[in-house]
């Protein structure tokens, strides 16, 4: 018998095991530029026991396993580079428990962040991690995702309290628990979060929840220069006001959005700020932010508290990446993801913009200025060797610039295939410890091979 027949026998439901060409194709590629490869079989498990049965089978035969959530990761994470079995976790999408008074929920890995937030509304609670895509909680935990809310609430590693994980040999283990803190032994939950499907498959997650703030106010401030915008962001955070989000978009990116949306936003380095908290703290905070922006020589300042107007105010930030995609619809996108110490951000963005212009390219550059993470979205033709070399050089320069200043090659997207070589540059002396852990958890190397390590 082949893999397909063996898995059907173990799952007992042929409808959830497929080698349909269209489905294999859908599971063969990420959203970025990495070369596709089809899995041999796609399995849609319903329970941890089914995941365990598939892993035990694969481990005995050295068959690669690639866990798959919403498929929105950006570094080729879900491409089964050696074929094998893709485990699509989206049918395990039950919210098992919401404990409003404990500020936590127990979910299956295929629950998406928007699905969870919809269910939480009636409790006045929400789940704060907000990557641009409607990703699954399992996938977000596996990449240690974050987003615009992270300046206030932290990243996935701060939200996951406990996990049920199926190990490579099919053993089911539990880490963490429902307590908001614990000093019991090694932090295995923290280790699994960010492991990109290479150490185990999550089948249940306990996540923290937050209260929906009473009031929210959005602001947009344009500045004469990038350093003035970035420095003002630092002053705003230092002032201790209730910052919920704070994002920086450079002048050329606003121009690209204007071309794409036929808008007329002031083309200048712009801060997008959201304050959230009690009505009084937001009101007082807004005045402090206005004052700090004026001191930072801001040339335009706008504020909105109504939810629709707030969304309109943030439009230029949300369209930044799409503006590049729309300008080059046939090209592939590379989204760099470095993170530098906050005080280095303005200079890093300036350096990147200069580099992009020297190469005669168009790019969107925008950053989570609150935590020093910024993205450069570049369009290129993956079939044009000269263009690929140019893009690789730019990517290398941006990463090395960040590493030289104590930063990291990836603030939130993860290593996947695309950043493997940079992991060695960043963590040369500790990669061997990471590899040792990988061998301990997955001695046969069946879990998402070809990711994180070269
Ligand atoms: C428009 C857009 C905007 C984005 N913005 C952001 C952003 O602001 N911040 C950010 O962090 N990311 C962002 N991303 C990237 C992406 O949304 C995140 O990486 C997200 O966490 C991936 O979740 P997913 O469910 O799509 O996982 P997938 O892409 O399906 O998988 C990601 C990784 O998780 C593993 N995995 C999936 N499920 C499990 C499981 N149950 N157990 C173990 N491993 C598993 C996979 O093997 C893979 O290695 C963006 C993507 C897009 C398309």
Tell me briefly what this model is.
With 454 residues, the protein is α+β, with helices and mostly antiparallel strands. It has helices at residues 3-11, 21-26, 48-61, 113-120, 137-143, 150-153, 156-159, 188-192, 226-238, 251-261, 279-295, 307-313, 315-318, 320-327, 345-358, 385-404, 420-427, 431-441, and strands spanning 17-18, 41-43, 65-68, 85-88, 95-99, 104-107, 125-126, 160-166, 172-176, 201-208, 210-211, 215-223, 243-249, 270-277, 298-304, 332-335, 363-368, 373-380. Helix content is 37%, strand content 21%.
Salient structural properties:
single chain, 454 residues, alpha+beta, 7-stranded antiparallel beta sheet, 5-stranded antiparallel beta sheet, 18 helices, 18 strands, globular, binds flavin-adenine dinucleotide
Descriptive overview:
The chain has 18 helices and 18 strands. By secondary structure, it is α+β, with helices and mostly antiparallel strands. The strands form four sheets. Strands 15-12-14-13-17-18-16 form a seven-stranded antiparallel beta sheet, sandwiched between helices. Strands 5-6-10-8-9 form a five-stranded antiparallel beta sheet. It has a four-stranded mixed beta sheet with strand order 1-2-4-3, covered by helices on one side. A hairpin with a 5-residue loop joins strand 8 (160-166) and strand 9 (172-176). It is globular, with a radius of gyration of 22 Å. Residues 31, 66-74, 77-78, 89, 109, 131-133, 135-136, 138-140, 142-143, 145-147, 196-197, 201-202, 412-413, 448 line the site of flavin-adenine dinucleotide (FAD).
